[in-house]
Amino acid sequence: MTGANPRFEGSYLGDAARLPDDAVMECKICWSVYDPAEGCAVWQVPPHTPFSALPEYWRCPTCDGAKEQFMVVAAPALSPARAGVQAMPASPPAPPVAQALEQSPARGFAHALERVFADIYATKMRGLPFVNEALNVRAVGFCTFENQLVGALVTPWFMNLVVVPGADASWVGVVSGSKKRLDFPSGSYEFTAALREGGSEALPGYWACSLFSPMFNFSTMLQASDTAQAAVRGLLDPALNPQAGAGKEPLPERKTSLPAPETVLGRRGLLVGQSGRQAGPQA
Known about the structure:
Blueprint: E1 24-27, E2 33-34, E3 70-74, H1 97-103, H2 105-125, E4 138-145, E5 148-154, E6 159-164, E7 179-184, E8 187-194, E9 206-212, H3 221-235, H4 266-272, H5 274-278
Helix pairs in contact: 1-2, 3-4
């Protein structure tokens, strides 16, 4: 990974010599972070391995992106003497959540959500018996729908649909943990309020709908992410609305040797469909 690389898209010009050994890197595709102090358990890279010393076969453990897709998150200014190149300043700190939301609402919230729950995972959840250590934290499929943000959050201990109301939404009288039904093209679902404190660094209030908890049905992060993406698509798909065919004449009954479908799919089966069923029943 030394020298110029025509496939490079990151922030160090494709030249590993420009990186200090303690540079923290972030995948521009899925925002996974490589911290040299921690190494990479997925690829069995020991702690204190610089990004520039990663084996050639190493790829992003979350999205399988190439090393060239990584960008500098934090690093001291480089010495001009290092590899004979001009020093690069350290990347600026992440902007406050409010500023990130203003700049790019969907991506800003998704990124902030990942950082909050990655910190919870690192400081409070690791090693607990209900945590699936094969997974990590990822915000999936966030987009704007009717002046609100919609997406899914995957963590090693749960998967939730997440809805962030528009800026004009009122939280007066709403307490964290209260329930509310929200309407979407695929139907009406019960969500739980999540309100966090912390000023400009806090996440805005949002609504969460539980899909899986715990997460032992998933053996890989790719499987969990695909299921979350399918759930977001299902939430916004009017074809899945059980009322969509109301008032229409039923189709003639057909005889079949296939087993009868489940009587009640529930919100998870309806939204996730085949991807969720392949993941197995909820523990």
